[in-house]
Amino acid sequence: MWSFARSAVRAHRASFVGSFLIVVAAAALLSANGVLMESGLRGDAPLLTTIAGSFAGTAVLVVVLVVASTFASALRQRSEQFALLRAVGATPAQVRRMVTAEVALVFAYAAPLGAVPGLFAAHLLTPSLESGGIVPEGLTLVVTPLPAVGALLLLFPTALLAARLAARKVTTVSPTAAVRGSSAEPAGLTGARRVWALVLLFSGIAQAGMPFVMPGTVGSAAGATSAFLLISAAAVAGPALVSTAARRAVSASRSSRHAATLLALLNSRGFSRRLTTAIVPLALFLALGTVQTGVNGSMVDAAQVQLRAGLSADAVLISPDGVSAAQASDVASAPGTEAVLASSMVPAEVRVDPADEVGDLAWEQAGLRAVSGSVPELFDVGVTAGSLDDLAGPGTIAVSGESLFATGKGVGDTVDLRFDDGTALSPTIVAVYDRGLGFGDYLLDAATLPEDAPVDTLFVRGQADLSGLTGLAGAQVLTVDEYVTEAVDGAASQQELGTILLFVLILFVAVAAANTLVMLTSARRPELALLRRIGTTRRQLTSMITVESVFVMVSALVLGTLSVIPALVSVSYGMVGGFAPAVDWPVYGALAAAVVLIAVVAMVLPARLASRGRA
Predict the structure, then answer these.
(1) I want to staple 478 with a disulfide (CB 3.0 to 4.6 A). Which of 167, 228, 256, 482 is the partner?
(2) pLDDT of the residue at 359
(3) Are 437 and 326 found together in one domain?
(4) Helices 46-76, 272-310: crossing angle, 10 deg rounding
């Protein structure tokens, strides 16, 4: 069996090259992210663990979909070979074992080529990790075989299941039926496929409605995943959707005298499963980039809205080097000053899981805003329970509602904190508020801290002249609008790692989409050769493939756009309370242009090469 599998892979290397490259890229991506997660756990960098874990959720979903689609495409092209094997006496079990051996053979070579470099490629992110404050300077990323093993354990079963499902058509019917059906694609969907498509569709709609029930970042994050569920639903129901769209396009073009156009649309109608595997990766590429950039932009916009609405100051004095007590006293006593609030940002860890068995996983990195002065007068954080007046008491803390989600805690309960020096505190919650994106998830009186923290910001209400203080090294006096803009820009810069990881994931999907299109088009060499023999010119073939590429790109743009609209509307509502889709239009335009470019180049060029030569 293994000898036969090696011969099959060698004979059909053109179709396996694409699968090989995707496995290499997928293994590298997952193993690199695994290094980040493991380093965060072993190196006491919980923020790194949080970011890598959040990215892993999206990456695993995307990688599984792409790997499954790629192997299904590669194996589906060989339906005739499998049918012939059945006709000459091969049993369904033998065909399945052969498919298993071929997939295992590809993984035996491809997985190490991707996973091992991926382990070391994670080190390229170290400068971004340190500059963003995600890890302390000097932290060395931990490299062990575990991420590579984890990537293999995820990818191999995924590819094997997809390959077996692709070969299922010829292993569940009689040999004669397998031969008859190998050259044609069924237009309809099986009952199980219809059920799965409906389940995914309604699950996506339900997820999109989460922010209307649970506003904020938690609900918005849940709503954003609806795009991937809807894309998955379209992938399952794709053959029926593509066939219907192509059928209507054929009806609309019956009067056309352009034979290549009609032939292209008839091909699209007759081979809807083949086109689905080409359309879905492109739609996923568009949806992934649009949703992720929309979510990031909405978070920044929401933080800006909350901060501007909640600040009652007239001026803000900021000093990275710290504001001394004497300087703060001068500001408070300056003529025209009505109220002053001193603020410090203090790094700490918060217990998010009461179970001791999980160790450091029970703690999450957080930034505490330590305040002193006129808190209720200058900060309107949207209190929903308790009162900020009680924050002046010893051992108290105010907490955002989102940070308490699913904890069951409220006013009167305690929050476990621990600081870099090992000191632990358990202050009592005296207020719960809504504007956590703008003001942070935790507010406490500076006197509650185990040791004094340098004041970096003074919020001042009144018309006091603070110009005399601007001579301090690094000190600035800003208006509220200037401070909000600077604070939001600083928060956006901290998303650098997330942006890099997103770019890598989008690039992976783009390569997968282009690879799938090239693989599918190259596999049509016999079809194109037959058309050449019956008199079709190369120009007509190029026109036919160009029309097919237009059909693919339009379908991908429509599918990708429709799948993200519910997610972006729900994210916009959850973050800022509006219904306008949270779309980063320049990014969407660039992604749409990339879809067009990939579809044309990856289909037309291979077709021209495949049709080269005399008829």
Answers:
(1) 482
(2) 61
(3) yes
(4) 160
Alpha-carbon 430 to chain mean position: 36
| Total length of the chain | 615
Are 543 and 600 in contact by the 8 Å Cβ rule? The answer is: no
- Residue 417 above 80 pLDDT? yes
The boundaries of the domain holding residue 180 are: 1-184
In a domain, 552, yes or no: yes
Is 154 within 8 Å of 66 (Cβ atoms)? no
> Hey, which residues does 233 pair with through a beta bridge?
none
**Residue listed under structure tokens 């568009």:** 286
102 close to 9: Cβ distance less than 8 angstroms: yes
- DSSP readout, 123-168? GGGHHHHHHTTSS-TTPPPP--SHHHHHHHHHHHHHHHHHHHHHHH
The pair of structure tokens assigned to 104 is 């295992």
Q: pTM, whole model, 2 decimals? A: 0.81
The CA–CA distances, whole Å, from 144 to 51, 113, 119, 120, 589 equal 20, 16, 8, 10, 40
Number of separate domains in the chain: 3
Q: 455: part of which helix (H) or strand (E)?
A: strand 455-462
Among 548, 526, 74, CA closest to 268: 548
Confidence of residue 615 (pLDDT cuts 50, 70, 90): very low
Cα–Cα dist 501/29, whole Å: 9
User: Which of residues 184, 216, 241 is at a domain's end?
Assistant: 184
